[in-house]
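Supplementary Data S3. Sequence and structure tokens for construct A.
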Amino acid sequence: MRTKVSIIGAGTAGLIAGRELAAKGISTSIYDQKKELGVPVRASGIISINGLRMSGISYHNAVTNTLRGARIHAGSRVMKISAREPVAKVLDRKKLADICAFEAEHEGAKVVKGRRVTEGDIKKLHKNSIIIGADGAVSTVARHFGMGNMGRYVLTYKAEFNLDIADPESVDLFFDNKAFPGLFAWLCPNAKDILEVGVGIDSTGGNSKKALERFLAVKEVREVVGDAKMIDNGASIIPLQMRRKIVDPERRVLLVGDAAGQVKSTTGGGIVYGSAAAIMAANAISDNISDGKSLLRYQEMFIKKYGRDLKLHRYINSFYSALEKNRIGSMIGVMNFLGMDSFISKYGDMDHPSLLIKRFFTRRAG
């Protein structure tokens, strides 16, 4: 019998996995409970240019803005980071989903929309197919197969406002572990006239919508937003820790993206690592079908290539999450004094902190 693959969840990671599998001639079906992919939009769309290239997505028609800088705020301290070349794109997540779905279907994958997959459905699908769970942080697939918990989550709430933006190429990040424990708040120009205002807080830190309301009342934010019209808002849940088990080789089940916890703990961004994992998972499945190689190679390959950076993201998040706002501000002051703002502007990599550390010590040694 020809081996089939059933992917639960048609987010970016699930659709990329479907694209890669179908391109290898493997019968693939992707199921999603939404009738319209990418709607409603709950996740921010900032993605590094290097990460987009790695994903293989033809993303250009989804771009709404280009970013080259950031301002990091803690109390009265600010660190400005500005690269000579653009470092990230802001994407329309609805258009991105449509592009990824088109690419998957073009390769031969079947995308089934408006189909909520229950644990009973998973049990039936599993009888004659390999299962990929790409169904988000609260994964039905992971729960059904007992693949453990991730431990840490953040709750986000964001709103979009229509207004003229003074500097549409820079993001503002606000660190305050009393107001935004576990992550931060942000102002992001999604387009030249659309500002996203958002907060991320630890899942034990209270109500994310109320946290956003408090952030909107901050003087600096109030002065920017003014009486601008809110055009969208919504909440999401993001994992900050990878599951210990992202593949069950005996039962032929794999997890990718947020379902696996393949997310940068420092920012909550998951598309770059999720895309890489989707490609690795597809390769591992192909090798399993053709040569009988263990599916466990997927987890081994992912950890070998990205495990160190994911740990560094987690350590950095744990470090600043334990600091009071004035201590974060003092640290920013010291970093500015040491010229770290210029160094990060020149050598920073939003996906791979290990490269930044390596370059820093190489420069010091030289």
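Construct B, processed identically:
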Amino acid sequence: MKPFLPARYEHVAFGLLLSGMMSFLVSGFSTLLTVGLVGHFPAIWMRAWLPSWALAFPVVLFVAPLVRRILHRVVIPRG
């Protein structure tokens, strides 16, 4: 695939993909633990995942800079 996204949007794309993948996996696991592997599991999962992603995406964009600042204080730089 040829790159198509300007570099200035990389942090937004990163947050979108990270929040999408993480919320997808976590909501699937939580849904499986709650309802079990029932016949309509995929529909239940998607109803749980999409609102979770809608919340997770802005949270990731807000929290990521804070996490970076914290890590810069606790991680020893490579020498």
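Residues 41-74 form the longest helix (34 residues). DSSP finds two helices and no strands in the chain.
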